[in-house]
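Translate sequence into structure tokens.
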Amino acid sequence: MTKRELYKRCSSWFSQAYPKAETELHFSSPYELLVAVMLSAQCTDRRVNMVTPALFKAYPTVQDMAGADAGDILPYVSSISYPNAKAAHLAEMARQVVSRFGGEIPRDMDDLQSLPGVGRKTANVMTAVAFGGQAMPVDTHVFRVSHRIGLVPDSCTTPLSVEKELVKHFPAEMLSTAHHWLILHGRYVCKARNPECDRCGLTDVCKSSSGKTH
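Result follows.
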């Protein structure tokens, strides 16, 4: 099977398995999504969704959060992984959005990545989810699933190299959707410790499914 055929086969099955492929983070504005994505690093979306309602009630706008310091924000995010660092990043991010970008979350990738606590993955999520663009954010699920299936070679050892390989082979207009497919598959079927291969419709093409160690 050629790489093109593999991607086409995976896309066909994913589109049927995950017809509603979208983020599971709860948000109502680019500001809220940016906060949620920053909190989601090494933390589950479910946990983030548990803490953001109170956080957004306390700081409904980026201007409100810009007026807080890390100590003010910390109690709201204390159950999140790395709460001290994330509280500090949120406070400084908000201040910079207000002072540098007039209170508007920037759309430009470089501008986004210039904000404290915002890396390439988060900036790509904002492009794909908040602003309706096409991007391939690579988190742990995307990284794991794309390697297991064989969408990317073993030589792709960094998130950026995986991103470039996936961007090369998925149609440009499908990138953001494909990102969600890979996340959902990794979250619910192709799990890190105990992948549920019996629930997967790609075992006939997956390089890791034929009795091999995952």
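Note: The mean pLDDT is 95.
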